[in-house]
Structures are given as structure tokens and as C-alpha cells.
Amino acid sequence: MTVVGIGADGWAGLTDAARALVDHAAVVLGGQRHLAMLPETPDQIREPWPSPLVEGLPALLEKFEGHDVVALASGDPLVSGVATTLVDLLGKDAVTVVPALSSVALARARMRWSAESTEVVTLVGRDPHLVARSLAPGLRLLVLSADGATPGEVAGLLTAAGYGGSPMSVLADLGSETESRVDGVAATWSDESPALNVIAVELVSSGARPLGFVAGLPEDAFEHDGQITKRDVRASALARLAPVPGQLLWDVGAGAGSVGIEWMRAHSTCRAVAIEAKDDRAERIGRNAATLGVPALQVVTGKAPEALADLEAPHAIFVGGGATEPGLVDACWDALLPGGRLVIHGVTLETEALLTDRYARLGGELTRLHVEHAAPIGSFTGWTPSRAITQWAVTKPDA
Questions:
Q1: I need a labelling partner for 82 at 20 to 30 A (CA). Which of 54, 168, 224, 338 fits?
Q2: Please, are residues 206 and 213 in contact by the beta-carbon 8 Å criterion?
Q3: d(CA 240, CA 244)
Q4: What is the DSSP letter of 196?
Q5: Rounded Cα distance, 257 and 254, in Å
Q6: Phi-psi region of 109 (alpha: psi -120 to 50; beta: other; left: phi over 0)
Q7: What share of residues in the chain are helix, strand, coil (percent, to 5)?
């Protein structure tokens, strides 16, 4: 399988080498738009991608097994393109990629923005709330749109988050004869956009509070009913859970979802499952995840340990409460992958006794966290202590 990138300028924009690959292929796969760009070639089979793509792709590839196949993709096929799916499906040694100039490179060129100063967010097949993870004053974003409605959705999200004054440019049909550009401001954006577009945003805060990527967001950054891991002990827990790109966390008894959300904010490829027994809290976790830019957080409504049975094995587990539930700690320990990290918090004597016992048996780190905040005492100021937290953190030995 060879994947050839093709720009909006179509056949004319391909190199001689890329044209030869397409000309000599027995089978050419691609979107209807891409296939329509090609000149006629006698006896060549041309077939559009199935819909839905991921479900239909294995059968399509099996149909043409043994043929010389070329697949067409927009620009750089590894920038939110089909080549990534094909490599995952067939293996890297079975796929050759011949890229064209990507829409990201063209957009940066039009904006005169360096790669070093720009963050790219793709919304192709993804929830637009992903943009919220990257909001910071002065940051430049290039947003790869899903369709013509995406610029309006992004403008609405920016405005709701306090970035309505941010300049926006929608660059459409980059590299083609119909290339266009519309400039405006997020708060007043109203233009309909062509389907193929990239959004360039220079973030300007209108009084929005910046939310950092370091663990320990303030409690009022989350919607909650009081059932939330407080920021100081949450930062301590996440330091020990150690978010690693691509790894999976279970947030057991998630409450407001704060630990799982901050785990996912640490890196765009971090994944998390929030397990919560109460329906209203589970719904609230979903809202918090969207607001804070990690809409892919998976929420499982159910009581642990039963709700853990069919989940993918995690690299890290946080238990914020309910550790004395029969079988819960054992289920978490058994499910944890080798080298995985387990952090459990407790506030009761019963939980503390359980954690002390596990510490004696399995080792790790046992810590008591006392946090006090200054507060008025009459006309003076004094320290108001929070309930002490017993924290057990342990790493599972490698196999």
C-alpha cells in the first residue's frame, strides 16, 4: 500500500514521481473528491473509501489483497489523515507514505507563524471542546476543522471561555485556485466557511483565568457538589500517579472527575476512565471534562469493584474514597499493569488501618497530608485545618 498526498491543486500539484505511482497502480482508493482530480487511466480500478471508514476498511483492503494499491489523502497523509489508520491496521512495514505539502504548513506560511510558536489542534472526527485544553493568553493555535461549521463552534467556545477578543482567520481551500481567507474576532464571528478550512487563532484573554497544565487546578474550576479531591492533595496524588503520554488511568469513585481530568490535561495522548456510582455525578464529570478540554474522558456509571470488571487494564489507579469496600483494593491491584502506580486516599480510621496493612505487606510510600488555610477569626486571621488525608502510593513490580 502506498499513500500519496494530494493538495487542493489536484493532479497538477503532484510531482512526477507521485504521478507515476498513481498512474501505474492497479487500484486507487480515496475520497470521491480526490478520485475526481485524476485523469482517466484505462483498466485502473478506482474505489471510494467506505462509510463508516474504520468499520469498512478491513473488508475493502481484503478485497484488493495482492494488488498494487495506491491510496490518496489530503496533503500530508500522516497529519490527521488516513495513513495513520492504515499503518495501525496493516503495520508500518506494509505502508509507504508520499506526502504533499500539509494544510498546517500552508496555513503557517499564510499567517507567517513559525512552527515553534504554534500549537496544532485537530478537530477532524473529534469533539470541538478539545480546543479548551489549549487556552492560554498569547498562544497561537492552528485548528484543523471537521467541516464548515467548525469555525463557528470554535468561536463560541472561545467566547464562552473568556477569549472572545481573540483574532481569528479562516483559511479555506489552501493551495487551490479558490483559496480564501476571512478575518474576524471570535466574539462576533458569524461567517459560514467552506468545508475545507484551517482556523488560525491568536488567543487574547478577556479576563479569563489561565488554567495551567501543572496538577492542582482550583476547586472552582470544576462543577461539583463538594465531592472533589482538593487541589493540594490532588497535586500530591498526581505527582505520584505520574501521567505518562499514552497511558491509561482509572479514577475510582471519581466524584467531580478532577483527578482523571487533570491526568488527561497533562498530555494530549493521556487517557482516563472515571468510575462513579451516582448518575448525577457521572453526568457532572462529563460536563467538567468538556469544559476543561478533555471530552474523550470515559465515564463509567457503576459501583466499584463490580464496575471495573470489563475495563482495559490501566497503568495507574487513583482511589479517592471507598477503599474499604470489600474486594476493591485487591481488584485494583490485580488489574494494574506491571510497573503501574496505585494511589489511595483515606480520611477514616478504618481506611487508614487498611492502608497501613497494605503498606506493611507491599511497601510503597505512606504519607499523612495536613493542609491548613488562613481564614478570619473574629477581627484576626488564623489557620483553619482541613481533614487529614492518609495517602498510600505504591508501584507494582515489573513482571
A1: 168
A2: no
A3: 11
A4: S
A5: 5
A6: alpha
A7: 35, 25, 40
Per-residue pLDDT reduced to its tens digit, 230-246: 999 999 999 999 999 99
- Please identify which residue in the block is written with the cell numbers 473488508: 59
Find out whether 144 and 80 touch, Cβ atoms under 8 Å: yes
Name beta bridge partners: 394.
342
Model confidence pLDDT, tens digit, residues 279-298: 999 999 999 999 999 999 99
pLDDT value at 70 more than 70: yes
d(CA 318, CA 248): 11
Return the CATH superfamily for domain 104-202: Tetrapyrrole methylase, C-terminal domain (3.30.950.10)
2 neighbors 71 (Cβ within 8 angstroms)? yes
pTM over 0.85: yes
- Cβ 68 vs Cβ 20: under 8 Å: no
18 grid coordinates: 507521485
Q: CA 38 to CA 224: how far, in whole Å?
A: 55
Q: For residue range 75-102, list pLDDT tens digits in order.
A: 999 988 899 999 999 999 999 999 999 9
* DSSP one-letter code for 195: S
All 3 cell numbers of residue 351? 481506611
Give the torsion sign (CA, 272, 273, 278, 279): positive
**Rounded distance, CA 282 to CA 289, Å?**
11
Closest Cα to residue 103, out of 73, 123, 76?
A: 76
pLDDT at 399: 67
The full set of domain ranges for the chain reads 2-101, 104-202, 219-395
pLDDT category at 398 given cuts 50, 70, 90 is: confident
Can you read off the three cell numbers belonging to residue 255?
466524584
Residue 298's beta-bridge partner residues?
Answer: 273
CATH architecture of the domain formed by 219-395: 3-Layer(aba) Sandwich (3.40)
All cell numbers assigned to 250: 482509572
Architecture of domain 2-101: 3-Layer(aba) Sandwich (3.40)
